[in-house]
Write a sequence for this structure.
């Protein structure tokens, strides 16, 4: 149980393109979803926390207009990288938590490798 | 402020050796959770263990064992008789409202 599906797994596109990444909880309802970014050989950096039906909370230094997050339902959150540029190339990972509370484990998607040419 | 420190950037061992990955954390909260995740070259995060701040019992799962010591704010992870398949990046994480990851330790197990 507790499967999180992230799609697509890999994206290669031209500079200026907007890219949407989907994160779905397949067998549970996710009240909270998280988006992380990971640079090569670096740790996961929390970008934002999204709660269903409300605006996402972004970490300091993360551009809200650049990384649009939508959490319209209890099973789906999307991250849209708008007008992507080569510096946005990275590994993006989402996670979902099925119950409120920090003591509940986060279930991670398999990540999306984004390459902007 | 919450912080997780994994001082070992890279570790290389020969198969069958035991290896310990260190994790030190900082938090002002009295209630929190600690985690270990494995990230193989394919990129996905594999959950290994979760430990709450009130449970200092050490845990063993097959070749894996964890030593949680609140007195030193450490949550170390030991792999006994390492295998090539253990090669991965291992992350320690601290959770309160959200999850904060350490920098990770890249473990290479050579045959």
């Amino acid at each position: 149980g507790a499967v999180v599906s992230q799609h697509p797994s890999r994206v290669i596109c031209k500079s200026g393109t907007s890219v949407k990444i989907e994160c779905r909880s397949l067998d549970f309802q996710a009240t909270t979803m998280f988006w992380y970014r990971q640079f090569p050989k670096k740790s996961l950096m929390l970008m934002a926390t999204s709660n269903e039906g409300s605006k996402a909370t972004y970490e300091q230094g993360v551009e809200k207009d650049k990384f649009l997050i939508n959490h319209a339902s209890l099973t789906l959150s999307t991250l849209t990288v708008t007008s992507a540029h080569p510096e946005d190339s990275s590994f993006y990972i989402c996670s979902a938590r099925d119950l409120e509370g920090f003591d509940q484990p986060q279930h991670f998607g398999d990540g999306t490798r984004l390459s902007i040419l | 402020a919450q912080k997780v420190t994994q001082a070992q950037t890279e570790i290389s061992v020969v198969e069958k050796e035991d290896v310990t990955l260190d994790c030190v954390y900082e938090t002002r909260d009295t209630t929190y959770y600690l985690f270990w995740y494995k990230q193989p070259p394919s990129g996905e995060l594999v959950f290994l263990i979760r430990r709450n701040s009130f449970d200092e019992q050490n845990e063993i799962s097959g070749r894996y064992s964890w030593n949680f010591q609140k007195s030193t704010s450490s949550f170390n992870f030991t792999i006994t008789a390492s295998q090539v398949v253990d090669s991965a990046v291992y992350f320690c994480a601290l959770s309160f409202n959200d999850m904060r990851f350490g920098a990770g330790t890249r473990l290479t197990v050579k045959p």
Q: What stands out?
A: DSSP finds no helices and eleven strands in chain A.
